[in-house]
Amino acid sequence: MADMDFKEPYNILYFLGLVLALLIPTLPATLTWLSVLQNMNS
Questions:
Q1: Rounded Cα distance, 27 and 12, in Å
Q2: pLDDT band at 41 (very low <50, low <70, confident <90, very high)
Q3: Dihedral sign computed on CA atoms, order 31, 37, 39, 42
Q4: Average pLDDT across the chain, whole number
Q5: pLDDT score recorded for residue 10
Q6: In terms of pTM, does the model score above 0.85?
């Protein structure tokens, strides 16, 4: 039973960490696109 109680939050934290790790490399591209779109609008 202790394993079941521990498993759920661990999986959620592991999933969030995985998502963050996958998003980090896209930060420069996202910031670049935001600046490009702002320059097009102004």
A1: 23
A2: confident
A3: negative
A4: 83
A5: 74
A6: no
Please provide the DSSP assignment of 10-34 as one string.
Answer: HHHHHHHHHHHHHHGGGHHHHHHHH
Q: Which amino acid is at 35?
A: S
Total residue count of the chain as it appears in this document:
42
Token digits for 18? Answer: 């995985």
In angstroms, what is the C-alpha Rg of the chain?
Answer: 18
Backbone angles phi, psi at 16, to 5 degrees: -65, -40
> Terminal CA-to-CA distance of the chain, rounded, Å?
59
Q: What angle do CA 23, 17, 20 make, to 5 degrees?
A: 15
